[in-house]
Amino acid sequence: MEETTNTAGGSGIKYLISHAPHAWKGESVSRIMWLVIAALLFPTAAGIYYFGFNAIGVIIVSVLFAVGTEWVCKHMRGKPFIMDGSAVVTGLLLALIMPPTIPLWMVAVGAIFSIGIAKEVFGGLGYNVFNPALAGRAFMMVCFAQPLTTWVAPTFFGADAVTTATPLNENFIIPPEKAAFYWDLFIGNIGGSIGETSFLLCLLGGIVLLAFKIIDWHIPVAFFGAVMIVAFLFGQDPVVHLLSGGLALGAFFMATDYATSPLTMRGRLLFGAGCGILTVLIRQLGGMPEGVCFSILLMNSLTPLIDRHLQPKPFGSVKKA
To answer: What global pTM score does this model have?
Structure first.
């Protein structure tokens, strides 16, 4: 965006020159971010309900260090710090994909990496190649693998944390009463990350984003559909794969990130399907039980390629002979 002044005839008229698109429907970055934060309050509430004070501590530390790191980076780069909510979104998302008992200093390291390296090094909001929260979690998986894969059963307030396996672990035994088990997965009464366990609350947050047209349906639906189809082909229970892990949180809140997802409808469908396929492949063939984080990051790296080859045809264009 560039501002220029026309001094011809002494008019001194200022023009604002910017790239397309030029139509604006009244949305601002700040309003979008705060709506996303409002939608994230649903899985956040579930995390606090199921994991109590442990979850509150992780959330507070993650958000504070994310915002603080952005403030420091902006001043180091000589850029103005604008509290548009994007750092809060990153910090909150990072907290929601953390185990509730992870040491708080590790959370601070992850938040600093998410903002300082995965976002600000690339130029700040809108220029990052990878989703910052997921990049932070991937970095933490390399550095702190054991704490990030140590899960506890829902502790509620004041209860002691008891280590447990998640439904995607090899040693997890699915109860014979599947209806009750599906219900626990749906509402979140299961071990896992703070904001990932309750499919219901993540779904409600996603519906809020869809209702306000912050996101569209293409990526989440393609993501969910691909996971269920590929899980079925592997002989797995598609419902367990759909309701387990960070699928709902990732599909609604991270795979749909504007800066790291394709621009076109066909591109978003391909992107979502790719995320779903990779998620199940990592879950079944990889060395870790969950695959949502790395599947989205891998598809983030393909977004420029998808946009290049699935560009919409310009109106009135004619194919060259």
So the answer is: 0.87
